[in-house]
Amino acid sequence: MRYNGLHLRIGSHTRNINEDGISIRYLNSSQIYLHPMYNIWLKRYDIALVRLDPPLQYSRKVAPLCLPNITKLSVQPGELCYVTGWGSTNGIGPPNTSLKQLLVRVLNNDVCKYKYFYSATYMILCVGGEHKRDTCAGDSGGGLMCQSSTNGRWELQGLVSFGASTCGQSGFPTIYMQVPFFLPWIQSVMREQCTLWRNS
């Protein structure tokens, strides 16, 4: 797969509008690392990493979100987390021009298993499914941010993958890729890239 022509808007809360303090990065395919077991038909291993060179400069508008420090899932059914994105808010219209944020509830993965006949529940989080309160087209890849009950820090626990064809249907949650499950792969890619950078 080729990904030339992609770009990132960093530090921005609005699309297609110039703001103070934002930067735009243009990417080529050598900077994007798709999981080697990604399956577009089965919707498994739906995760990728992006290498930014030079690294980001943190500011009032740009800051990191922590990765979980354990591979065991720490988010439990019933917990509330935040998801953000520029996706459509009516299911059929264009993406939003401003970044949206939504508080969503984590469900038992069996809900998604039986709703979508999705057997690989070990790699997902089942989230949302409330009437007119869910992610939609254009939100894929958005992060699920949850506050740790042990140390209080905000962590990236999930990434929006897919849901029902009509957004915001009651009883039809969204499937997220579970970040703790993918930590070994994430760390292996990061180690490899750090080694290449040091030897270059």
TrEMBL record:
Residues covered by the Peptidase S1 domain: 1-191
Pfam families membership: Trypsin
Keyword vocabulary terms for this entry: Disulfide bond
Molecular function as annotated in GO: serine-type endopeptidase activity
Biological processes, Gene Ontology terms: proteolysis
Top-level lineage group: Eukaryota
Family: Belongs to the peptidase S1 family. CLIP subfamily.
Annotated protein name in UniProt: Peptidase S1 domain-containing protein
Source organism per UniProt: Ciona savignyi (Pacific transparent sea squirt)
Upper classification of the organism: Eukaryota, Metazoa, Chordata, Tunicata, Ascidiacea
